[in-house]
Amino acid sequence: MGQHQEPFLLGLLFALSFGIFCAHSVTVLPLLPVCLLLCGLLGAAAFGIWKSREWTWVPFILAAFVLGAARLWSAEMLPADDISHFAHEEVRVTGKLLEEPFLRLASDGSYRLRLHLEAERIKKGKAETVTAEGGLYVYARFNEAPKALPRIGDGVAVTGKVRLPHGYRNPGQLDTALLLKSQGITATLSARGESLKVEEREGASFKRWLSSVRSHYLSAMEEVMPKEDAAAIFAMLFGGYGGLQPELLDAFTATGIVHILSVSGAHISLIAAVMAWLGMALRLSKGLRAILVIGTIVVYSLLSGCVPPVIRSAIMGGLAFLALSLDRERDARRILLITGLVMLTVSPLLLFHISFQLSFLATAGLLYLAPVMREWLKKCRLGEFVSAGFAITMAAQLSTLPILAWYFNQLSISSLLANLTIVPIVELIIVIGLFGGIIAFLLPFLGRIIYVGDSLLLGIVYEMARWMSKLPGSMIWIPTLNGWAGAVYYAILCFMVADKPWQEKAWDFMKSRRQYLLLAGLVLLMFLGGRYFAHTGEMTLVAVDVGQGDALVLCSPKGRVLLFDSGGTRGDFDVGEKVLVPYLRHYGMNRVEAVFLTHAHDDHAGGTGAVLKKLPVGKVYTAWEGRGEYARSFHLSQADPLLNKLEPARQGAAMEVDGVRVEVLYAPEVVAPGSGNEASNVYKITYGEASFLITGDLTKENEAVILSQQDQGKLHSTVLKVGHHGSDTSSSEEFLRAVSPNFAIICVGADNSFGHPKAKVLERLQQAGAEIHRTDLEGEVVFHTDGKKMWVESYAKE
């Protein structure tokens, strides 16, 4: 172990991570026997060290695996008085404000406030006040801007309904609940704005002073530049997306430099590099340069709010850069691995946090992969500057590629050019911005001049980013890598960066066992081929978790895609852009043959605008509310040419795609604009002996109309998409008897304010003999059929 420290540390980190990952999907086991097993393994490792045994590394690796599982299970156990135990209750919570309040102006003209509290006391109804703990986000809405906001450290009392954090649970979607839990936030509270009371408290003076410093930076910039520019530069300095122009955000995303708007290891490295250069200019010793670098990183971390992502970036980026500046590259690698071990041991939920994943892998790429690539590029005679720039960019992209593929399915080709041309200017903006704030405090007039120059530089950056984002092939789609593909990918990268003796050992191992490796490859190929041919001829219909809305994706046996409803908007959050389009891309569904909308309500049609903008789409079949209703729901102008794809569905019409038949069973043509749920179309999908009935928000009255118009045998379906999210306004007993479904899928948002699905509807579905599935409990629900059999998979069964 002493001779091979890096491989040993890498093995420990992998085992610890694998233990955390496995424990996350396994029921929590009693910690006592797990701890006893851990002690036994550590004892065996100690014995091996004492006797100098070659196998000593084995119990260490096993102990790391068990430690990872134990830490995950212990982290998921919440104390008895945690605020999450009051979920679904109307309570009054008193707590301490931990971060600056976040206030924004919503598109409807109201003000939305978010507070991060540490719970202290809680009162339910007329019951006694009891102590509570745990972090929570409080969301409140105001018709007018609040006259005063609480300060960090103040007490806040507020009344509202406690909810458990709940995101959109689909493959490739960020797990919001897990991300918040890793930050100590176990609940949210939807508050009535008028119930909020602030209790001024002394203390937290240092945090308040840091907040005032950040406010000084922002106000100094807003005095001399547009608010949008000030918001962008402030984001570059301290992170965050508040107040940013969507166009700037899109351009930065398309050119692969959006990470600049989050405090990351890149920021830390930049600050450290400037301080190291300053130390060299002042001819300071290595020791003093190290103190200057570390001191500056600490101050910058404090100014950025000391939020967890900043602390992680400061530790990883700062220690790694410090080791590199002291010409200790190998030590920098060891420091990174040890830092990862410590972080995951202290906070195992970080393993599932995208910020940690990207920061760690990008730093590893810079330390391990970039030097190898730089030497290779120099041999191609590209020059030191170009080789270094390309090596850093490519190393960061390659080291994080499986993560980017899983979550985003996009790779920016223009990022190579952007990192060579735009990023140096952005780095200059950051440095000028940081020192400009100090100068503005001492010499306000000179500070204003500096910030005017910073604003001009930002304008140049914006124009360059916008131009590069429009280059052909600027952003390309990349397929999702599953666990096995990701493991093989990283194994190849590890082989590329390994020292020559390790590469030779790996070659010798593969040569000596090539017959076994060949056999394993053939078995794997047969397994994958068998799975492929087993799924040939299979159709899938997926109920995507879009919250309180409907979105169903049909994939034909030959991979063609049809969309039935598209979710909608939630406040200023576009579900189509943020949830549905990423879901389609995650599975490589880069074209939609046709969209079938039941009606124009936002929760059914609102996501279609984003789908039309982002993907090639054939026809969009609608109800008969009129073009204006759909333009409003899509958030498009009535003159937008995308609306030319709209065509009202006609009752009795049908189309067939790869053996899948879609028929319009019901489409009322006499519909007044804004008429609501009674406008809902009904579509029936048939593939072989399997059938699906899509009802939108169909009301009981219209169900009766369909029953009078259609032969009841025509309504019989294997799967029923339950009307109106399980509301009692739909799903009459007569209608359910006619449909007689084997399965029922309810598209509904978790803990929604409407109380959907209603208990009476669930009871009627059970009496009809239907197996009930719900997106609020199961996330994505997938129905597979070969035309004869039907089987169901759920992403997150509760």
Describe this entry's structure for a reader.
The chain is an alpha+beta fold. It has five domains: 5-76; 83-203, OB fold (Dihydrolipoamide Acetyltransferase, E2P); 210-358 and 413-474, no CATH class; 501-529; 539-794, Metallo-beta-lactamase, Chain A (4-Layer Sandwich). Helix content is 50%, strand content 17%. It has 27 helices and 27 strands. It has an eight-stranded mixed beta sheet. β17 (617-622), α22 (627-634) and β18 (646-648) form a beta-alpha-beta unit. α6 (227-238) packs across α15 and α7 packs across α15. The mean pLDDT is 83.
Q: What structural class do the secondary elements suggest?
A: alpha+beta
Q: Calculate the terminal CA-CA distance, rounded to whole Å.
A: 43 Å
Number of continuous helical runs = 27
What integer value in Å does the Rg equal?
Answer: 29 Å
Q: Report the mean per-residue pLDDT as an integer.
A: 83
Output the strand order for the largest sheet.
18-17-16-13-12-11-26-27
Quaternary state of the chains = single chain
How is the biggest beta sheet arranged?
8 strands, mixed
Overall 3D geometry? globular
Short description, anyone?
The chain is of the alpha+beta class.
Features:
798 residues; alpha+beta; OB fold (Dihydrolipoamide Acetyltransferase, E2P); 5 domains; 8-stranded mixed β-sheet; 7-stranded mixed β-sheet
Question: Topology, pairings included?
Answer:
Layout: H1 5-24, H2 31-51, H3 57-76, E1 90-97, E2 102-105, E3 111-123, E4 130-131, E5 135-142, E6 155-163, H4 176-182, E7 185-192, E8 197-199, H5 205-222, H6 227-238, H7 246-254, H8 265-281, H9 286-303, H10 308-325, H11 329-346, H12 354-379, H13 384-407, E9 410-412, H14 415-442, H15 444-469, E10 475-477, H16 483-497, H17 500-512, H18 514-535, E11 539-543, E12 551-555, E13 561-566, E14 569-570, E15 573-574, H19 575-586, E16 592-596, H20 602-605, H21 608-614, E17 617-622, H22 627-634, E18 646-648, E19 654-657, E20 660-666, E21 682-687, E22 690-694, H23 700-709, H24 712-715, E23 719-721, H25 733-739, E24 743-746, H26 759-767, E25 771-774, H27 775-778, E26 781-785, E27 790-794
Parallel strand pairs: 5-7, 13-16, 16-17, 17-18, 22-23, 23-24, 24-25
Antiparallel strand pairs: 1-3, 1-6, 2-3, 3-4, 3-5, 6-7, 6-8, 9-10, 11-12, 11-26, 12-13, 14-15, 19-20, 20-21, 21-22, 26-27
